Amino acid sequence: MGYLKNLLNAALGQKPQASTTYDLSNMTHDEAREFLRVGGAVETASGAHVGETSAMRVAAAWRSVNIISGVMGSLPIDLIRRESEGVRRPAAGHPLRRVLTVKPNQWQTPNEFRRMMQAHLLLRGNAYAMKVMGGDRVLALIPLHPDRVGVEQLDDYTIEYKVSLKGGRYLTLQQKDMFHLRGMSLDGVKGLSVLSHMRESLGIALQAERTSARLMKNGQFVGGVLSHPQTLSPEAHGRLKASIDEKHSGADNAGKMLLLEEGMGFSAVSMTATDLQFLEQRDFQRYDIAMFFGVPPHMLGATEKTTSWGSGIEQQGIGFVTYTLNDWIKIWEEACKRDLIAEREWDTLDVRVYTQGLMRGDAKARWEAHTKGLQWGVISPDEVRALEDMNPRPDGLGGVYYDPPNTAGGATEGEGDEPQETSAAASV
To answer: Taking the domains of the chain in order of start, what are their residue ranges?
Structure first.
């Protein structure tokens, strides 16, 4: 923990703090307890210790990582062979296609593997998997935790990886042996850790959550104050206490009238400005964390500063795909080609991640896209049926491409698009 903290302090221009440095090979019992308590996390200015585990206890961080990694794990991915400049087909039979789409290793599904790798990429800025080779073909990918991998660029500009194994042993891997997903980088060798840069925001969120929990356990919530002009008699005090405990406590008794004696009065207590600022601080942290990950706030449940109607949410969703997911998709596609495809096959093979999978939950938008593609002769009915996991038309006419409505044989001038659209859809 001390080593990581000193690195962070050095980046901030602060002196190393020797008081938090631990020698893992020669710890005292107290130092071991402290190290295990914080889990090797770095202490922030707010006093919270932030590491990978504690970061995922923040709801906004969990949801952001879960959304992006979940989408990247569920989007269709395939190995494509370019037969010519205009013809591309799935590379059926290629062993890498099986690794990407069926079985990356002995214990993970493709979805599980990609979700985990994307989560590493989001939190640590890097994701690593050791390649199991058969000749120059990748047969399996063994994921490695980023904290166990050290990266160094050698004098010949190749990259070397030192992997810490169980039992204290080290394994040195060359660039050809590693699949490396790299996020935003300043040196081109190792991606920047998002977790390191957002520690202060996460620390504030953790402390705010801890404060709320302690308030729930130890604090007092007073909805009003009962006042008496003089001194309440013991008899009246007993009846009042019994009435509150028996007839006015719990959700079933909410809203019932309270009968007061001896001229007592009731004054409601509203939320103070301090309480409001505390709630606003917790709300602000959601937006701050969403900004680090590039997730629209409404996906985290923060809809106070955005519209929930019409194009507002829709445009935010489109922006999420355009400005956040597309970046991660391109990182996956290019890293897969660089690290997983043999150089002799670079001219004929590509890895593609298809964003059309995002439309699976929107049947209306999906079929509108199919209809326009049919109408303009871009796709055939059988191709639409294949996208919908349906068999070709039994009459054998599903391979016909329709003429666009503005060409000879299409709709005549003055005819609307609606009949054409209906006809194309019906022909599927």
So the answer is: 1-40, 224-268, 362-427
